[in-house]
Amino acid sequence: MVRAGAIAFFTTIAVVPLVRRFCIRWVLYDLNGPLKIHVGAIPRLGGVAIILSLVAGLVFNHQFDAMQARPFLIALTLIWAVGFVDDIQGLSPILRLAIQIVGGVLLWYGGWRLPWFENSAINLAGVCLLAVVFINAFNFLDGADGLCAGVTGIIAAAYIFLPSIALSELGSLVAWSLLGASLGFLFFNFPPNAKIFMGDSGSTVLGFCIVFLGLDFCRSSAPNLKGATVLFPIVVAGLPLLDATLAISRRLVGGGDLLYGDRRHFYDLWTGLGWTPRRVALTTYALTAAICAIAGLVLKCDFRKALSLSIGTAGILLIAGLRLGSLRQNHETQDKPADCSPIAQ
Predict the structure, then answer these.
(1) Which of 64, 197, 330, 333 has most Cβ atoms within 10 angstroms of its Cβ?
(2) Is 345 a member of any domain?
(3) Residue 65 burial (CB count, 10 A)
């Protein structure tokens, strides 16, 4: 499995410079705008390198089962392709949302389902909802240098360190490939001098892989799951999920359109306090690692303790987000259209 991570890492290192040259040649930049915090024109098609690295890590491995992976690979390709087109010329938010739902349907069809619902229709709806939520939550993270790749890499590592029975062979390959691709991309995206952005084609792919790992964990560990330990996939991604929840709540409370972005995410608020981009990134990594450690404890506890840890962690994060000002309105930006995910940054 380590081989998958190494292949993904070195593929990213090799491909990103080529993608940058392509973007410069065809003037494919992430330009300045009302919702942008970077200065200058930065190439934004890093998602090309990420998808190639992930696929390389998977297929160049003797443990890879193409038939088992087919639904996942088709869904991954669709998610990436829509993000790629959107990065170049923009697509309807409804179309992007529809493709994300199709991705959830493909995972459900491939056998990655929720352990809570026996009714097929409800189970399918739940998988699709999780796919949409995770994909957009990680897309929200791609508003500051190094955050999305760094957080994804840490969460992937959390899955890697689980007992081997916790993931299928495909799940383990995805986790290792995700870690390698994320670390490789950070070489070019770590603040304060990011040389390329991953764009929607990168952030949505990373979010989709994380929701896949969660569903694979539920399926592979089903016989050994104890009560609230099934919440591990939610707890381990608690930071991006809470940020997305607060962003949606903020727009609903303010009477704004969910398709319009703002600059009130936790990393924006930290930046507003005078934090440097590197401090924001490192603090986010530390917080994500701490949450992953708590998620690991959830797996070792009985039902009552596991549930208490999960709720307590969510409560602390929520209180911190509220005190930071995550629900306050930013009237300078909330009425400006965004160009990112179906539920824009």
Answers:
(1) 197
(2) no
(3) 13
Q: Which residues contact 188 (CB under 8 A, 6 or more apart)?
A: 16, 20, 46, 194, 195, 196
| Residue span of the structural domain in which 193 resides | 2-324
Tokens of 196: 């390329």
Tell whether 138 is covered by a domain.
Answer: yes
288 three-state secondary structure: helix
In the chain, alpha helices (H): 2-25, 46-59, 66-89, 93-109, 120-141, 147-160, 169-189, 199-220, 232-236, 238-253, 266-272, 277-300, 303-324
Q: Domain tally for the chain? A: 1
- Give the 3-state secondary structure of residue 160: helix
pLDDT tens for the chain, 345 residues long, are 899 999 999 999 999 999 999 999 998 987 655 555 555 689 999 999 999 999 999 999 888 899 999 999 999 999 999 999 999 998 999 999 999 999 999 999 999 998 888 899 999 999 999 999 999 999 999 999 999 999 999 999 999 998 767 899 999 999 999 999 999 999 999 999 899 999 999 999 999 999 999 999 988 876 666 566 788 999 999 999 999 999 999 988 876 667 666 788 999 999 999 999 999 999 999 999 999 999 999 888 887 888 899 999 999 999 999 999 998 876 544 433 344 456 555
Tell me the C-alpha to C-alpha distance, in Å, between residue 60 and each of 10, 76, 133, 241, 289. 13, 17, 30, 32, 29
pTM: 0.93
* Paired tokens of 167: 């993931």
Q: Cα(263)–Cα(37) distance, rounded to whole angstroms?
A: 9
Q: How far is CA 247 from CA 35, 83, 92, 315, 334, in A?
A: 14, 21, 20, 16, 11
Residue 56 in domain: yes
Distance CA 282, CA 236 (A): 18
Residue 337 within a domain: no
The angle, 0 to 180 degrees and rounded to 10, between the axes of the packed helices 120-141 and 238-253 is 90
